[in-house]
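We close this part of the discussion by returning to an individual protein. In the encoding step, the backbone of a single protein was reduced to a row of integers, each denoting a local shape. The sequence in question and its structure tokens are set out directly beneath this paragraph.
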Amino acid sequence: MFTRDYPEPILVKGLKDMNRAISGDQVAIQILPKDQWKRSSARAVDEGTPPPLSLFSGPVFHLPSPPPFFLPSSDVLNPEEVHEEPEEEKGPEEDTAMTENPIKPTGRVVGILRRNARQYCGSVDEATADSEAEMGELRSVIFVPVDKRIPRVKIQTRQIENLLNQRIAVAIDSWDTTSRSPVGHFVRVIGAVGDREVETEVILLEHDVPFQPFSEAVRACLPSNSWTVEEQPKEEARVDLRHLDVCSVDPPGCTDIDDALHVRELPNGNYEIGVHIADVSHFVRPGNPMDREAAKRGTTVYLVDRRIDMLPELLGSSMSPLFFFRFCPQSP
């Protein structure tokens, strides 16, 4: 993790030192004495990814050692309930690996300042479902998030039969100091495990990509299909380049026809090369619903079989030539 005022990333290793913090939480952290600093696990170095519950992201605040106070939410997990796995002993032949994986500044979470309040996608661990329980009986089961940085969550439900082999969304409610796992509640069923549409939605949800259809307020900002360049106010008039032969450089089948060139010979024998870019921002007025939605989305997201547009299709896809062949910003 990275702190606001500490020059190096800080390793937080093990459930006890994680102290019920979850990836994305805003936390206060205490740097341990140097003789307690550790190396990250070999798996984390070899695979380039942190092991579950060892490292997490999110703003943290560095507290001096010893800390002047402990926040009410920072009670450590009951040591009797936490069984840390001992570190593997390193042999002489692993000196090279240890050099590549040096000891890192190590700390522990002493306070959770703000929870990362969000829903998590995953599925129910079938092994924890009591097959002998009666239909409709309230049961406790374990929810396994698809994000390996998130701990397993205890939930209770009366509809376990409808949740097995399904991707579901769960929200975390609390995490008691005597428990290895947080407690949460079932929110909704996303769909069947393995279904392409369902797994795609899970990817989008887990990466916080807005993919819902554009609202009516956003679509109300669009120009009509019969819009013409003559409709723009005189004070916003552009240089009319429709007399030029402008050619798209986008490949066949491309839905983003927004780049083009023109070439013409000048009277002095030189050649002028013009680069044209679609100016759809003419219709995205500062602060209007379309501007706010585009700011929230940030960019167009491309998946294997689809794209999630930042702007409605009329501006961002097949209709963009309408705007880019008809007007171009005034050259300086």
